[in-house]
Amino acid sequence: MDASSAYQDSLPLSSDALLAELDAWGLPYRLFTHAPLRTVEDSKAAEHLFVQPGEKALRIKNLYLRDKKKRNHLVTLEQSREIDLKALGVALGAGNLSFGSEERLFEHLGIRPGAVSPLAMVNGVKTGVSFHLDPAAREAEVIYMHPLVNDRTVAMSRDDLFAFLERIGCPVTWLA
After folding, report:
1. Residue 94 has what DSSP assignment?
2. Burial of residue 18 (number of CB atoms within 10 Å: 0-12, 13-18, 19+)
3. Would you call 175 helix, strand, or coil by DSSP?
4. Radius of gyration (Cα) for the chain, nearest Å?
C-alpha cells in the first residue's frame, strides 16, 4: 500500500479523522490536495501550489530513526538542512542512529513511508516516540506538513502546531 489518502482507512487514525480532531480542538489549518509527494525533491517541485509569497514558512523533512537501545525518534528539520546522523546521535544522547523500518514506522507512528510528519506524533506519543524539532520552527509563521498521508498538505501556524503537540502530550526536544 502507498501513503496516499486512498489507503487512509488502513491506518490506525485516518487523515480525515485527524483533520476532524483538529477542527474539534479549534486548531485552524489550510488543506491542500495534490499528487503524492514522496521526497523533499517532490515537495520542492510542488510547493508553488500552496506556499504563499512573503509568509515566513517552514517546509520540513522528517526522519524516523531508531537508536541501539531500540528507542524511536522523529526528527523534523528544515527541508534543506544537512544532517549528520552520527553527530545527531551524539547530540541526542542516543548513540548510533539508523532509519527505522517500514514496519516499525507503521507500528510506532501509524503511517507509511512518505507521510512522516509531526502530526504523526498523535500516534507516536502512545508508543514512546521522542520528538525533536529544528530551531528554525521558532522563527516560522506557518509550517507545512502531511496529515498522515502524502497526497495532502496542511499549513498550520507555528502556535497551532505547538498547541496540537501540547494537546496530545508530546514534549518537544529542540535540536541545536
Report:
1. -
2. buried
3. coil
4. 15
CA distance 176 to 172: 13
Alpha-carbon gap, residue 119 to 110, rounded angstroms? 11
Residue 99 pLDDT > 90, yes or no?
yes
Euclidean distance between CA atoms 80 and 119, whole angstroms: 20
CB 151, CB 33: distance < 8 Å: yes
User: In angstroms, what CA-CA distances link 157 with 4, 7, 114, 116, 163?
Assistant: 24, 27, 22, 18, 10
Nearest to 18 by CA among 116, 119, 169: 119
**If we measure between CA atoms, which residue out of 155, 85, 75 comes closest to residue 121?**
75
Grid cell listed for 144: 507545512
C-alpha cell at 6: 486512498
Q: For 40-124, list the strands marked E by DSSP.
A: 57-67, 72-78, 97-99
How many CA atoms lie within 13 Å of 167's alpha carbon, on the beta-carbon side? 15
Which tens digit of pLDDT belongs to each residue from 104-148?
999 999 999 999 999 999 999 999 999 999 999 999 999 999 999
